[in-house]
Amino acid sequence: MKNFITFVMMLMIFTFMALPALADGVRDANAAYNELLSAFNGKYPDEYAGAYLGTSDKKLCVLLTERYADTAAKLGAAQDKMLSYVSAAYTNSIIFKTAKYSYNELLAARDTASASLRDKGYALSSAGINDQMNVAEIGVTPSDYAAAADFVKSDSSLKALPLSIVSAERMSTAGNESPGTMPQTGDNSNTILRLAFLLLSGGALAGTVVFARKRKRT
Questions:
Q1: Helices (DSSP H) in the chain: which residue ranges?
Q2: If 99 and its partner were Cys, which of 49, 56, 149, 153 is the partner (CB 3.0–4.6 Å)?
Q3: 201 or 53: which carries more pLDDT confidence?
């Protein structure tokens, strides 16, 4: 019992130490992303290939188009350009990677594929950008999915585009961005506090059960 209580106490200490830092990281990454989009105002630089929130480090990963960052000088210039759109307080929350297609190319691929599939009579459920995969992601209703996927593979103009055809029931609520790939905006502090409460409650409940069983045996 003593060892278990020690474990629960260590878990509580770790939770209270780690979760505030995690919340701060997510909040800063969200703020950096919002500032970036606000600066773009719907007109994306050709150097920009998308952005998403890292699952482990909780940093904003900004993707740079490969051909605009294929040398050290061009890479540095592209990074400086992206950082110029973001407040200095959030620059440490940003990391950079390269991707093949620019965001503008992905948007064009999305629009071209959506129009072609609709013209063929396929029912679409979503049309967005999967930033992390660097593709335009087209959701097709399950009943039409197989035929639509085959059509894309056989069409010479579509199969060359950066596309991902998925089976999906409903529309995405994330606008041009695909669910789960982009940073979630808003204050995450309440979510973090709920997570901490659940962890602590779980530990307390487990301790109560163990104590009750030991008392019953006694």
A1: 2-40, 72-83, 103-119, 142-154, 189-217
A2: 49
A3: 53
